[in-house]
Amino acid sequence: MDQILPVEDEDGETEVHIISSSFSDPYLLILCDDSSVKLFQATDSGEIEEVECNAISSAKWLSASLFQPSFGSEVYAFLLTPEGGLQVSYCCGMMPGVSLMNLQIFSLLQLEEASYSAAGLGFLPPLLTEDFSARRATGKAAITEILAAELGDATSKSPHLIVRTFVVPFIFTLTSLQGAYLHR
Amino acid sequence: MQCYTELAPPTAVTHAVNLHFLSPKANNLVVAKSSLLQIFETKSTITEVATDGGDAGEHASPNLDTEVADVPLERTENTAKLVLVAEYPLAGNVLSLARVKTLNTKSRAESLLVAFRDAKLSLVEWDPETFSLNTISIHYYENPDVPGAPWSPDLKDTHNFLTADPASRCAALKFGAHNLAILPIRQHGLTEDDFDSDLDVEQDERPNGVNGATAGDTQKPPYLPSFVLPLTQLDPALTHPVHLAFLHEYREPTFGIVAASQATAPALLPERKDILTYTVFTLDLEQKASTTLLSVSGLPYDISKVVPLPRPIGGALLLGGNEIIHVSQAGKAIGVAVNEFAKVSSAFPLTDQSELALKLEGCSVELLSEETGDVLIILDDGQILTLTFTLDGRIVSGMALQPVSRENGGHILKCRASCLVNLGRGRIFVGSEDADSVMMGWATKSGGQYTRKRSQDEAAEDGDSSLEDEDEIDDVEDDLYNDTAPAIKKITAAQAEATPLGTYLFRIHDVLPSIAPIRDVIVNPTADARRIGSAKSPMEMDILVSSGRGRAGGVTTLNRDLSPVDLAQSTLESARGLWAVHARKQAPTGLVTDIGQDTEANLSSDVDYDQYMVVCRLGPGGSEETVVYEVNGSEVQETSKGELQREDASTINIGTLAKGTRVVQVMSTEIRTYDFGELGLPNGSRDRANFVYLRTQHGSNLACGG
To answer: In this complex, is the C-beta atom of B129 within 8 Å of any C-beta atom belonging to chain A?
Structure first.
């Protein structure tokens, strides 16, 4: 009935604090201050269990957000690596970051591998695609948080990715898992 | 130099066109609001029929053979909504929009031809990869170096407009006093010089894309070089053209033009009576030659527009202020006079319907029904009329104008239309510069029952199936002799007579709000005392504008910010975080635990919902603590119910899992879950009010109801 889930480092030595969490029934994703992420899933009986995933737990992440689009029943996890990329994994998972700041998107059903990975989110280009090469030496924006949500009204909604920097938020509209484009 | 900032984007719709733009099957409406281009999709939703006084009390008993006679019958209907896909501010005012079908577009769909003031054309397509517009080409015809006659008007003073061939063989921009810029569109293997190269290109395209099969295509633009044709080359008498348009159902691009050798003037009626002539020319684009097909002279002085009609009627409608004339493909002209002045100002033979006493100035005309060929006319004051034809075989033998009555929706429009677009499937978009633009739906009433124009399958595939008139245009190209005898026989048998009065019903589906035309502006301080004032600007100003014209006139307020109205306020000191808990009782043991998916069970009356608010704040001892409040209506009361960790608990987030039956409290060092029952109250408040919680900088919380 009542569960207490402690959050500890793998070694159990240092105390780890939770910074943020994201809910998407039945998943819960938490981000700890050592840049690690844990994924929990609620079972039918109401118990919360941790979901093991090496791809996610071994990497460092800056921000995480769960998202369930209204057109599908899969839940996606949007994860941001500290250097600035965005990885979208199907699973709530995050993909291990590569050197660039990556956005990675995981599908929760396929946690081992990112469904989508876009480098260079930090540059905030007008069109975000998977193969991004930094052409100009434009400054990277310091991204602090990402949030994936559906925006719209009763007639039509579409998924958006909101990226928060120190100055002003940027909103990307997701057209498909192949690319996203920026809307300000 | 002009320094300004735009406070509100343009809202008056000046032009609109319907085409497959985003993909070959998409049904898109492209709307131009002076310098703003918007692309819409239509989406079908289900709404309830608004019951008016006459229909109240309609029960299910006549239809159902039960004793339950008190169940009120609720009818649902399909309502179309416009969904904005993209919008682009353009660097110039749009003069006309036209739809052209070009080869090898990136989206494999049609392209849009935009004419700008004063004489510029831009051909654009949709790029699905970058999700944006892509300009294919720009054509420029304003040549200041060419010396014209010193008395000839400037380009900006002449009536310039664009017209495109319905079969997309070419487009023509009329500019200047009597110049026509013709842009031929490349067709699929039609022209002789390109025939072989087109073949090669096609062969490369299909097998593989290894050697960049589309390289040959991309080098060839989708149009052929354009040329300017002075209309006087076609006929020296065409010095004062009034209007022209390309006609349907011809093998070669053919246009009808209303012109005269002198300018028409109402003041000179005794001298210049009936000088206008309607001539139909066929263009041979390769030879750059033309042939006159037919000519009708003696038209009344006020004929101002040529509207081409597709099958089954064909030919063109000539619109004037006092009469409407139809000229068929064979050259037979019949007309109807709608007021007493037609007979006075013209000797052209017209059927008399002058008892209608209509003013056709400023009217808009569009094809209503493709089957019967009926035409929709919207007058200057927004009144809706239908024009119906009597066919004798393939020949139009008569026409009649029928006003649509108020019960049938004849007065749902408030002002005149600037553009009318038939979107197919019983929907028409009415764009207006003086009132809100609406999307209207029409249905035919037959035998006392409402018959749907569309079948139920069509409603499901909204936006997926192609337009019916697309098939017609394709048939024109493929059919060698335009032999559509079987279809025409069917039509003549069924529709030989004019459509009876009161057949059509009109209803508004969706509205694009507009504040145009703005005649006066004042700045007004905020009057509502309930507004949450901010410390920065104690005197907030709104802008009041007078908008609309005629029956659509009104006053509109433009606010700078969203202004929520404070309904209730309670102070919770030093609060750091605030969450609303909305948990549901788990199903009793023994029942199937699929309560999340079962929407009926969710709506049933014994599903309890609780409203709790959890606040994390700085406690008296300096450490953070969590407090639970119960929400009853607009009252917030601290409660000690529930076993949430309170003391020394820094809550990061609260949410629900397991389909809403478990409340999870995420704290900085651990995560706790609670069953709903443990929160205490078995019977929570059943009211599902919607609240918006705001947290201000000093930590007090405000609840605003919605």
So the answer is: yes
Token code pair at residue B395: 């020949």
Choose among B87, B103, B109, B107: nearest CA to B39: B87
Question: Is B52 within 8 Å of chain A by CB?
Answer: no
Provide the whole-model pTM.
Answer: 0.77
> Residue A126's closest chain B neighbor by CA?
B130
C-alpha atoms less than 13 angstroms from C-alpha of B156 in its C-beta half-sphere? 2
Per CB-CB distance under 8 Å, the chain B contacts of A179 are 129, 131
Q: Distance between alpha carbon B358 and the CA centroid of its chain, in Å?
A: 28
Q: Which of B598, B666, B675 to mutate to test the interface with A (most CBs of A within 10 A)?
A: B666
| Calpha distance B50→B75 (Å, rounded) | 9
Q: Which of B83, B582, B644, B664 to mutate to test the interface with A (most CBs of A within 10 A)?
A: B664
Adjacent-strand bridge partners of B255: B246, B281
Burial of B403 (0-12, 13-18, 19+ CB in 10 A): middle
Tokens standing for residue B321: 């202020």
Read off the pLDDT of residues B599-637 as tens digits, 9 standing for 90 and up: 444 444 444 455 777 777 777 766 777 777 777 666 677
Residue-wise pLDDT tens digits, B153-207: 888 888 999 999 999 999 999 998 888 999 999 888 654 444 444 444 343 334 3
Q: Residue length, chain B? A: 706
Tell me how far apart the alpha carbons of residues B447 and B441 are, in angstroms, rounded to a whole number: 20
ipTM: 0.77
Say yes or no for a CB contact (<8 Å) between A28 and B655.
Answer: yes
Instruction: Calculate the CA dihedral of residues B353, B358, B361, B366 and round it to 10 degrees.
Output: -70
Compute the nearest-CA separation of B675 from chain A (Å). Answer: 6
Give CA separation, A159 vs A69, A162, B195, B476, in Å: 7, 10, 46, 42
